[in-house]
UniProtKB/TrEMBL annotation:
This is DUF72 domain-containing protein. It comes from the Bacteria. The lineage of its organism: Bacteria, Bacillati, Bacillota, Bacilli, Lactobacillales. Pfam families: DUF72. InterPro entries: DUF72, UPF0759_sf.
Length: 273
């Protein structure tokens, strides 16, 4: 089974029924979404309940762990453990309705292979022993020949979902596409585009430039073959190449190429003004 979705809910003008695209707009086309607002703050349970009201039953959410939870730099003395507890509490309605596909831990580029960082991964398991956890490494060291098998075995042992990333390839600052499943229930593919110049660029606009890329039909077909090879389990393919608002179109093109059809999507919204 291959489910396709987007990230950045409000940033898809081609789907918007109003001034900005909404969860309801995305749920009319796709069966899953990745929420990135949770990276910045733990939402309230009321906010999560409102998200659920906008989508049909069975619609799936990938929710980003906060920056403190995912080992990004935080203020000294900050209690990340409290955010683990707070996020679990906030997501309780989503968990109860079986609409939480995964909590995504997108680890920072400086999170390299070390005994300390392996302990961090094991601590995540201790704090979330019963929740679906997805791990995206952004340090290529985890995939070096001398560590790759051990990395994947560690994810399997912990029951973590491996995030297969597609991104520009450079000598530094990139991870390879490693099409390996480590969880029996789910694998996630996150497609960031292949804009090498934007990926390496700094400055105020770096975030949008990194993902400013439109996949060609041939590239989508190749990624489709990767997804099909992983599809003995459930695969969620998330398009994050939205620096130039290309993600929604590419995702729909991918769905058409793969001949995918989804039941129980939400109703299409009408733009009356």
């Amino acid at each position: 089974m291959i489910d396709v979705g987007l990230t950045a809910v409000a940033d898809h003008p081609s789907l918007a029924s109003g001034k900005a695209s909404s969860l309801a707009d995305l749920a009319a086309v796709f069966p899953v979404v990745e929420l990135d607002t949770t990276y910045y703050n733990v939402p309230s349970q009321a906010v999560v309940t409102n998200w659920l009201k906008q989508v049909p039953a069975g619609f799936q959410f990938i929710v980003k762990a906060t920056q403190a939870m995912s080992a990004h730099k935080v203020e000294e003395g900050h209690d990340a453990g409290a955010e683990f507890t707070g996020l679990r509490r906030a997501l309780a309605p989503m968990i109860e309705r079986q609409q939480l596909a995964a909590i995504l831990f997108q680890l920072p580029p400086y999170f390299g292979v070390s005994a300390t960082n392996i302990h961090v991964l094991r601590r995540i398991k201790l704090l979330y022993p019963d929740l679906p956890v997805a791990i995206e490494f952004r340090n290529a060291g985890w995939y070096l020949p001398e560590y790759r098998a051990q990395t994947l075995d560690l994810l399997r042992t912990l029951g973590f979902i491996h995030v297969v990333a597609d991104e520009p390839q450079s000598a530094a600052g990139s991870v390879p596409l490693v099409a390996e499943a480590t969880n029996e229930a789910l694998t996630i593919m996150r497609l960031h585009g292949r804009n090498l110049a934007g990926w390496q660029r700094g400055g105020a606009q770096w975030r949008s430039q990194r993902t400013n890329y439109r996949y060609s039909a041939e590239e989508l077909q190749a990624l489709g073959r990767v997804a099909q090879n992983l599809a003995s389990q459930r695969v969620m393919v998330i398009f994050n190449n939205n620096g130039g608002h290309d993600a929604a179109d590419n995702a729909q093109q991918f769905i058409a190429q793969q001949g995918l059809h989804y039941n129980n999507l939400g109703p299409h919204q009408l733009d009356l003004f």
